[in-house]
Design brief:
By secondary structure, this protein is of the alpha/beta class. It has helices spanning about 10-15, 50-65, 145-155, 165-175, 195-215, and strands at about 5-10, 25, 30-35, 40-45, 65-75, 85-90, 95-100, 100-105, 120, 135-140, 160, 180-185. The strands form two sheets. It has a five-stranded mixed β-barrel, surrounded by four helices.
Length: about 220
């Protein structure tokens, strides 16, 4: 594997990846950098699922990347120990059918009618990454409500939430390209999450970036 696309939702998350290595403008918003014998293409299109999926499609179409790697931060909604994780499954938390009893979840991209079921998008196994493995739930919501976070955990079995990963995973699935993700947590997706995200952004973003830096030469 030689060409890798790296995606984040927040510019700071990419800025803290290989912060001392010079970058070259590639095309548009994409930067290019070499690391560990790999050619890396870095893109942050902004926050949310459309931005993330567009970043994935851009990197695939313009640079023929062989892996789409999401790095950055997430909210923690489960009791899994630690604050740095290898994401092995991703689901979308805001796709489905809105009914009187609430949101009924379906697999993203499927027909949201009839018996409900959710199948996760599975990540490519990462070499040399000795981190807790978990499922993440992605939506176009920055969650500041512990009740909603608990509902997502109960319905979808996710321990983390973010606004990018499952969108990249779905795009990768449609494009026939492997994906993976490394996420560090900043907050608990509750009423203190906004302040905690700001305070912990640099620490968490650097932790996820450092883990990716160690792993990439092994691909």
């Amino acid at each position: 594997m030689r060409r890798i696309g790296i995606i984040s939702g927040v510019e700071r998350e990419l800025a803290l990846f290989l912060p001392d290595v010079a970058r070259q403008p590639a095309e548009g918003r994409v930067d290019r950098v070499e690391h560990g014998g790999k050619e890396l293409f870095l893109l942050c299109n902004g926050i949310g699922k459309v931005a993330a999926a567009t970043a994935a499609a851009t990197l695939h179409a313009r640079f023929d990347v062989e892996l789409l790697l999401v790095i950055g931060t997430a909210g923690k909604i489960g009791d899994l120990p630690g604050d740095l994780f290898n994401i092995v499954e991703a689901v979308q938390a805001d796709f489905g059918a809105q009914r009187a009893e609430g949101l009924v979840h379906y697999t993203a991209g499927s027909w949201p009618i009839g018996p409900a079921s959710v199948s996760a998008f599975r990540a490519m196994p990462l070499p040399g990454v000795d981190l807790p493995q978990t499922r993440i739930a992605t939506s176009d919501l920055f969650i500041e409500c512990g009740t909603h976070a608990a509902r997502v955990r109960e319905k979808l079995g996710a321990m983390l939430v973010d606004m990018e990963t499952a969108a990249v995973a779905q795009a990768a699935h449609l494009l026939g390209t492997p994906w993976a993700a490394i996420k560090a947590t900043t907050d608990s997706a509750d009423d203190g999450s906004a302040d905690n995200f700001v305070v912990n952004l640099d620490r968490a973003a650097r932790a996820a970036a450092a883990a990716a830096e160690r792993m990439i030469p092994l691909l």
